[in-house]
């Protein structure tokens, strides 16, 4: 009970002390409150508008997760509110109130279905209902509603762009680092089992582990996309910290490598269980394959380090390609005397090459 009661206080303490999700949520909430207050004060004290409810209303929806999204939402918000005001005015001019209100709702819902409005289309109806309900759809009040809507949108958008504009680089970096750590750990584990000849005991676990990594891969993709969007039109990206290599470059490499790592686990399970004609590589080939997996794991770890995706990564990936070439030549030399071993190495070569190509791809 006490834990539940004090949960809000602990959340607020984390938001103040530690950078992260809580602080971002608190910052955006404070900005939204400030935008609503400023837009209302400006509408009342500067423009002398009566009952300026649309100004703070519009400003709230302009404080979005990213500056780019704020501008996009502000444009749609402005269009939807203007359409709602115009719809209310037309309904009020042509029809009595008992008929004007339901007709405005009907027409507004139909117009809101246009795909460009997205989830904001509903505000056409909401605005029309609000304007009609407070009897502000006639006379000079109509122009005031349009002006205060514009005021709210501008205040919310500018405030979000200037005051601590949101950047999500840290979240993307953390998610990418976690994916790299788990992927490298799996590769090291497979290398260890190859040396200890325990592949058959662990192969099924590797397949499940690689498949479970899917949710983390999706998180990395979403976080890196949000990080890229948060840099668009953002004043903070000019700072040295945000001019570094974009986190989505590292994420793109690891996300592209994951399907190949999963295939490696499936191929090792296939050869370890003897499900087909292929079989586990001989001792020398297994040792070479283990060395290659360890080296690929090092490349994965390097790819997640800040600034690590440069010449050092290219050198390691190039060396790994040479190691794989050597394993393929060895497999060719074994045939036809050890066809089963050759098939086992041959089945592993394509996904191994796929991982290397993914890690070596240009981040641009």
UniProtKB/TrEMBL annotation:
<keyword id="KW-1003">Cell membrane</keyword>
<feature type="transmembrane region" description="Helical">
    <location>
        <begin position="150"/>
        <end position="168"/>
    </location>
</feature>
<dbReference type="InterPro" id="IPR010343">
    <property type="entry name" value="ArAE_1"/>
</dbReference>
<keyword id="KW-0812">Transmembrane</keyword>
<keyword id="KW-0472">Membrane</keyword>
<dbReference type="GO" id="GO:0005886">
    <property type="term" value="C:plasma membrane"/>
</dbReference>
<feature type="transmembrane region" description="Helical">
    <location>
        <begin position="74"/>
        <end position="92"/>
    </location>
</feature>
<feature type="transmembrane region" description="Helical">
    <location>
        <begin position="122"/>
        <end position="143"/>
    </location>
</feature>
<keyword id="KW-1133">Transmembrane helix</keyword>
<dbReference type="Pfam" id="PF06081">
    <property type="entry name" value="ArAE_1"/>
</dbReference>
<protein>
    <submittedName>
        <fullName>Uncharacterized membrane protein YgaE (UPF0421/DUF939 family)</fullName>
    </submittedName>
</protein>
């Amino acid at each position: 009970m006490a834990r539940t009661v004090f949960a809000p206080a602990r959340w607020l303490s984390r938001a103040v002390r530690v950078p992260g999700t809580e602080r971002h949520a608190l910052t955006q909430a404070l900005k939204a409150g400030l935008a609503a207050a400023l837009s209302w004060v400006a509408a009342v004290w500067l423009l002398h508008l009566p009952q300026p409810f649309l100004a703070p209303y519009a400003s709230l929806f302009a404080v979005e997760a990213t500056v780019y999204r704020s501008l996009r939402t502000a444009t749609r918000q402005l269009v939807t509110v203007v359409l709602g005001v115009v719809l209310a005015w037309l309904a009020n001019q042509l029809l009595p109130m008992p008929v004007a209100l339901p007709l405005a709702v009907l027409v507004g819902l139909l117009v809101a279905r246009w795909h460009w409005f997205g989830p904001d289309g509903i505000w056409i109806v909401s605005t029309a209902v609000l304007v009609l309900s407070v009897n502000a759809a006639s006379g000079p009040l109509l122009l005031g509603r349009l002006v205060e809507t514009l005021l709210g949108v501008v205040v919310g958008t500018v405030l979000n762009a200037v005051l601590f504009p949101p950047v999500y680089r840290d979240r993307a970096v953390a998610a990418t680092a976690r994916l790299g750590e788990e992927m490298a750990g799996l590769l090291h584990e497979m290398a260890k089992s190859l040396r200890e000849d325990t592949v058959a005991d662990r192969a099924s676990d590797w397949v499940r582990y690689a498949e479970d990594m899917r949710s983390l891969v999706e998180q990395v993709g979403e976080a890196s996309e949000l990080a890229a969007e948060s840099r668009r039109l953002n004043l903070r990206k000019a700072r040295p910290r945000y001019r570094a290599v974009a986190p989505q470059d590292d994420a793109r490499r690891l996300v592209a490598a994951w399907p190949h790592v999963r295939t490696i686990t499936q191929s090792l399970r296939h050869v370890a269980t003897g499900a087909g004609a292929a079989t586990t590589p001989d001792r020398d080939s297994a040792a070479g394959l283990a060395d290659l997996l360890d080296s690929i794991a090092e490349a994965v770890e390097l790819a997640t380090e800040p600034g690590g995706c440069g010449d050092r990564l290219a050198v390691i990936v190039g060396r790994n390609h040479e190691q794989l070439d050597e394993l393929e030549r060895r497999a060719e030399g074994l045939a036809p005397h050890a066809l089963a071993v050759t098939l086992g190495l041959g089945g592993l070569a394509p996904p191994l090459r796929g991982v290397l190509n993914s890690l070596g791809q240009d981040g641009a």
